[in-house]
Automatic annotation (TrEMBL):
This is Post-GPI attachment to proteins GalNAc transferase 4. One of its GO terms (cellular component) is Golgi membrane. It comes from Meleagris gallopavo (Wild turkey). InterPro entries: PGAP4. The chain crosses the membrane at residues 20-43, 254-275, 281-301. GO terms for biological process: GPI anchor biosynthetic process. The lineage of its organism: Eukaryota, Metazoa, Chordata, Craniata, Vertebrata. GO terms for molecular function: glycosyltransferase activity. The gene is PGAP4. Keywords: Membrane, Transmembrane, Transmembrane helix.
Length: 395
């Protein structure tokens, strides 16, 4: 018996043994290579927060401040169009109306100018494919005249304002309820002013990605023809990167994670078998590589795998929605009217902000909603309009 155990130990512990190969691969990958390569990746488990968070946060703020100044100069140099700012909504119905909701924040970052300049540039770049798109700025500052950036934008975009000048604040309306009421106002005004086929409601710190219009064009022409998507209450175009991991109570992500392992397990087994000169099919090794690839993808960060889908619009994923957040929300005209009716009947408060209120409707009203992956906007606003924070961090 002892002799048999010694033989078994000798077989497993020889350098040519698969056990030693795979153990070495695991130790080198997770103990050496991944920590060295990924220690600066913000959404990776290997991220060294204590070393990098403060300097990276300061670097981001500095860069974003420069982008705000660049956006200011963009509009200062831009020639004011000769056409009327308010398009004749009676004779033209846009396919897509981009509504930018804005409130006065810190002047030095010019958040709304960053968003508006990016949309303006991308629409110019898009050309004839985006001729049926329009942009509307919705100013929800209680005293609209205080919002200096909006004054500049009024020369280039149609504008609506929720003027509360001179009114005494209603003590029953908390910050979260006001934010919901502002959202309802802007969505309602979008429908009244333009009656578009789709409304993209964007908060003033959600800068669009380069490919937003080609992806939306693909969704309109190809994906939304499916009934289950056509009847959705809304589509989220942003979900926080830190919440995009596989280990999450979302069934679709677990299925995606398992599918990744089922695909990469046999592929990596074939690569290993070819390199080691062994039989091509070995179920224990396939299972090892499936677990290896699943662990590596989770620890490095699902967010970085999602970025590969930016190669083409057809690769973008449309999956059932998750709870947080609302920087960029796409509604069809009919779903926007349903959402307005629902939201007007809800009272928001701390712990039940408008994003949670919208998500709660899926259960209470039997609605469906989806999120587009990867994100089609970047959330750049580290200074919130709801919370005071003098030292914001990226995480």
């Amino acid at each position: 018996m002892l002799h048999y155990a010694w033989q078994l130990y000798g077989r497993w512990c020889r350098w040519s043994s698969p056990f030693i190969h795979l153990l070495t691969l695991t130790v080198v990958t997770f103990g050496v290579l991944a920590p060295l390569i990924c220690h600066r990746l913000l959404y990776s488990y290997f991220y060294l927060r204590r070393w990098h968070l403060n300097p990276m946060s300061q670097e981001f703020l500095s860069q974003n401040q420069q982008e705000g100044q660049a956006a200011l100069h963009y509009f200062e140099k831009l020639q004011i169009p000769n056409i009327s700012k308010a398009s004749n909504s009676e004779t033209f119905r846009p396919l897509l109306l981009v509504t930018i909701i804005t409130v006065q924040r810190r002047d030095d970052f010019h958040y709304v100018l960053q968003v508006a300049s990016r949309f303006h540039h991308l629409l110019q770049q898009c050309g004839t494919n985006c001729q049926s798109h329009r942009v509307l700025v919705c100013n929800v500052e209680p005293d609209p005249s205080r919002h200096q950036d909006v004054k500049l934008l009024s020369s280039f975009f149609p504008m609506v304002s929720r003027d509360k000048t001179g009114e005494d604040p209603d003590p029953r309306v908390n910050h979260f309820e006001k934010e919901k009421q502002d959202y309802v106002f802007c969505l309602e005004q979008s429908l009244l002013a333009y009656n578009p086929e789709y409304v993209l409601v964007v908060e003033d710190d959600a800068v669009p990605e380069e490919e937003i219009f080609p992806v939306l064009q693909h969704l309109f022409l190809a994906r939304f023809s499916k009934p289950y998507l056509r009847d959705a209450l809304y589509f989220k175009l942003y979900h926080p990167e830190r919440l995009q991991q596989y280990v999450n109570p979302e069934p679709m992500r677990i299925l995606e994670w398992l599918g990744l392992g089922m695909f990469l397990g046999p592929v990596l087994n074939c690569v290993y078998s070819w390199a080691a000169g062994r039989p091509s099919l070995n179920w224990p090794i396939i299972l090892f590589f499936a677990a290896y690839s699943m662990a590596l993808s989770e620890l490095v960060g699902r967010h970085y795998l999602l970025e590969l889908r930016r190669l083409a619009p057809v690769l973008y994923n449309v999956v059932p929605v998750t709870e947080c957040c609302t920087p960029a929300m796409l509604f069809s005209a009919s779903s926007a009217r349903r959402a307005l009716g629902y939201l007007k009947g809800l009272q928001c408060r701390q712990g039940f902000a408008k994003d949670i209120a919208l998500y709660s409707l899926l259960r209470t009203k039997g609605e469906n909603a989806y999120v587009v992956e990867p994100n089609l906007v970047r959330h750049v606003g580290m200074y919130s309009s709801l919370w005071l924070n003098d030292n914001p961090k990226l995480l």
